[in-house]
Design goal:
By secondary structure, the protein is of the alpha/beta class. The protein has helices at residues 3-6, 45-63, 90-98, 102-119, 135-147, 162-168, 179-184, 226-238, 252-267, 298-303, 315-323, 335-357, 368-380, 385-401, 411-428, 434-459, 463-475; strands spanning 10-13, 18-21, 29-34, 67-72, 80-82, 86-89, 151-154, 157-160, 201-206, 222-224, 242-248, 272-278, 281-283, 286-287, 331-333, 478-483, 486-491. The chain is built from 17 helices and 17 strands. β5 (80-82) and β6 form a beta hairpin. The chain is globular, with a radius of gyration of 27 Å. The protein starts with a helix and ends with a strand. It binds adenosine monophosphate (AMP) and zinc ion. Zinc ion is lined by residues 35, 230, 247, 255. Adenosine monophosphate binds at residues 35, 37-38, 46-47, 49-50, 247-248, 250-251, 280-281, 287-289.
Length: 492
């Protein structure tokens, strides 16, 4: 029986503000969309937290046996410096300042983002669509919204008509805002804007002559509004209705509110069934954000090359630190918090290694099957990773206290414990044994040296030395294999 049939997963849906039982539309297939980065600068650790939170969601759904199509976009056009549809395109601006092509900026920061995600052991999405790769689809959606009478064109730009939409729909339902309050909170735009209402937002924007990112459209040369790409790419790859949409909670308004409106206006359906929002990473109490400069970059964290930290930390330790907080709770980053997380992580990995050498037999109070159920209950309760980690540490205490020759549980329980620890620690939480990785990298270096020495011995026709290297390695279980690409090694 697949695990998803035995587990009732509850998700906190931001739309209903309640935990709801997860029932995928076309189970066991699950569609999940997560708003990706705007690739105009290095991602900071706050951005990483959101992506790592959704990596946990993806990993757990996959662990339960769901077949997840996970779409995370790359915003490479349309995101303006000012979220109120004004100012330059963030990528265009950076390209102008550095005298580069916008796509050079996009390429540089997309590669950087992938590299950082790989270091955090985040699983890549199944599809990673870009805004610039979907201009045609975005223009089609603008047409549909115009046809529905919920947008209007002014001077080459097209705006979504929020008050009109609100006559038949509830704009603000996700973020819990009322249109009247929103109206009273905005400046009077009389005469200063093309928009009929300050709440309206651009779905297509006319490009002025200095705007480098520009495409032809039925309304003249322009570019798509930022909110539009996520509606278009999520529904293109996941259908007009799909299961999960994620992002940081700062995106709830206006970005996700606008997505719902665009979906409803263009397809008649609201698109998303479960809205999931991750909470913010703060640094010394204030939200980590590019615009305020209160940020820490991943490489500063790994190398310790910053006055905010005493030393560097392995990416997996940082991941463990993040997993110790629930994704919907705010998490504050500090040197002390990281040091504490590192201690816990080392204890955990020591126990995982000791577990391999435990022998069954004897008696103890540790009840493996109850313990395993509690681990699932924690994850089924809206991905509660801190509670899961607390249970994992109950097992760590048991393992560390166990007599290796007769650990206190039966061989069947030992097998279950080993499988569950590996599943939760490595597959679900996505942690890695940094010491083993470091050892592996060092072994690679040593093997490279030995393979070079043997190649030199063979070039010198010193067969005695080359055979000795090969035979002695074989004795310790390392097999050398000569092939057209050179010599490689395998461990037995
Ligand atoms: P951006 O590239 O600015 O569109 O942001 C990418 C993702 O990072 C979005 O889902 C944001 O919600 C998220 N994000 C931005 N700042 C933080 C933060 N301090 N903590 C957690 N997530 C954040
Ligand atoms: Zn988005």
């Amino acid at each position: 029986m697949p695990l998803y049939e035995e587990n009732d997963l509850l998700l906190y849906n931001s739309l209903s503000r309640k935990k709801e039982k997860f029932e995928p539309l076309n189970g066991p297939h699950v569609g999940m969309y997560v708003c990706g980065p705007t690739v105009y600068s290095d991602v900071h650790l706050g951005n990483c937290r959101t992506f790592i939170s959704f990596d946990l969601v993806y990993r757990y759904l996959t662990h339960l046996g769901y077949k997840v199509r996970y779409v995370r976009n790359i915003t490479d056009a349309g995101h303006l410096v000012d979220d109120a549809d004004e100012g330059e395109d963030k990528i265009g601006k950076k390209a102008r300042l550095e005298a580069l092509e916008p796509m050079e900026i996009v390429q540089r920061y997309t590669l950087g983002f992938h590299d950082v995600m790989a270091r955090f052991n985040a699983v890549p999405p199944s599809i990673e669509p870009t805004a610039t790769g979907h201009i045609v689809e975005q223009i089609d959606t603008v047409k549909k919204i115009l046809d529905a009478g919920l947008a209007y064109e002014v001077n080459g730009s097209v705006y979504f008509d929020v008050p009109k939409y609100n006559e038949t729909h509830d704009y603000g339902k996700l973020s819990g805002r009322k249109i009247e309050e929103l109206m009273s909170g905005t400046r009077d735009l009389e005469g200063q804007s093309e928009k009929r209402s300050p709440l309206d937002f651009a779905i297509w924007k006319k490009a002025d002559p200095t705007h480098i990112m520009r495409w032809n459209s039925p309304w003249g040369v322009g570019f798509p509004g930022w909110h539009l790409e996520c509606s278009v790419m999520s529904t293109k790859y996941l259908g007009e209705q799909f299961d999960i949409h994620g992002g940081g909670m700062d995106l709830k308004f206006p970005h996700h509110e606008c997505e719902i409106a665009q979906n409803a206006a263009s397809t008649g359906k609201e698109g998303v069934r479960y809205w999931l929002h991750g909470n913010m990473l703060t640094l010394n109490g204030a939200r980590m954000s590019k615009s305020t400069g209160n940020t820490l970059l991943p490489y500063e964290l790994f190398t310790g090359d910053t006055d905010k930290l005493e030393k560097g930390f392995a990416p997996t330790v940082v991941r463990f630190f993040m997993m110790q907080a629930h994704y919907r709770s705010q998490l504050d980053f500090s040197n002390d918090a990281l040091l504490a997380a590192e201690k816990g992580y080392v204890r955990l990995m020591d126990a995982v290694r000791k577990l391999k050498s435990l022998q069954p037999g004897g008696t103890s109070d540790f009840k493996v099957s109850e313990w395993k159920d509690k681990c699932y209950e924690a994850m089924n309760d809206d991905f509660n990773s801190p509670i899961l980690i607390a249970h994992i540490f109950d097992a760590v205490r048991f393992i560390n206290g166990a007599d290796a020759t007769a650990c206190g549980i039966s061989s069947e329980d030992l097998e279950t414990l080993t499988q569950s620890i590996n599943a939760f620690v490595f597959d679900v939480l996505g942690l890695e044994d940094a010491a083993a990785d470091e050892g592996g990298a060092k072994l690679d270096e040593v093997m490279k040296m030995l393979i070079d020495m043997r190649a030199r011995a063979r070039a010198d026709k010193d067969w005695a030395l080359s055979d000795k290297i090969r035979d002695q390695l074989a004795e310790i279980g390392i097999q050398l294999k000569d092939g057209p690409e050179g010599t490689t090694y395998t461990l037995q």
